[in-house]
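Hi everyone,

Forwarding the result from last night's run.
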Amino acid sequence: MNDKLPLPEESTIDLPHLPKDGTHEIAPNLAYRRLAMVNVVFHGAHGDGNWTLIDTGVPMLGGLIESSAGDRFGEGVRPHSIILTHGHFDHVGNVRELAEKWAVPVYAHPLEFPYLTGLAAYPRVDPFVGGGIMPLTAPVFPSGPIDITHHLVELPGDGTLPGMPDWKWIHTPGHSPGHVSLWREKDRTLIAGDAFITTNMDSAYAVLTQKPELHGPPTFLTVDWDAAKTSVATLAELEPELVVTGHGQAMHGAEMRKALHQLARDFERFAVPEGGRYVEHPARVEDGTAYRT
């Protein structure tokens, strides 16, 4: 069992007036909504006709994303694009439906393309890590590829993000080969995806209550722990002020940064599962084991 990095309440974002649909505004042009166990992120100010959706949640909930977008940006206002932090089922569950309806491009790292063009599936989940109920249920999660070839576009090689001025993308592999995080230097805001998370995804109780704890990437879907460690260290070095992750509450401030640095320093203690399938035998692009056909 990994040790915990609990986060104090002052690290959470004060949200006294949440919209009825549960969309959390954490900056004037940044909001997120939890859909089941995962967050989707909206970039753009209220009424902004040039907004961006980051990740698309679990399947069958596209209507809730459209509802939140309509309330925030105007009914029927389509986004500039969709950006995927990675291609796991809980982040791409509605991407085909929404990309087709809105007729917009979907940006992703090219190392995720085999999972997004129908060519390869992710390595099999590791259900015997973490010590909680969630890994044991993970084998029923979809792991096969989807095909959004006609909408898929590579993220620009210069690190910029189309439709998101002042932001850049950072390659943060480990949880998946082409995982990316999004960074805005001017206010040190980080959209971390699943490079690290702020709740314990191994525990169904923690997922339900959203108890704030800093964790490495979800254990049962992470296939390269050495790369994941490097990615967390890269993000800690940015000294973020505000973080929204794929799972858990948005966090900010000095205590969050302190916990993030501790996670980076003692990654094996706080993140790497004992005896995990991919601890000794990582699945990597170089030898083809990252892609299951």
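The first strand starts at residue 5 and ends at 6.

Cheers,
N.
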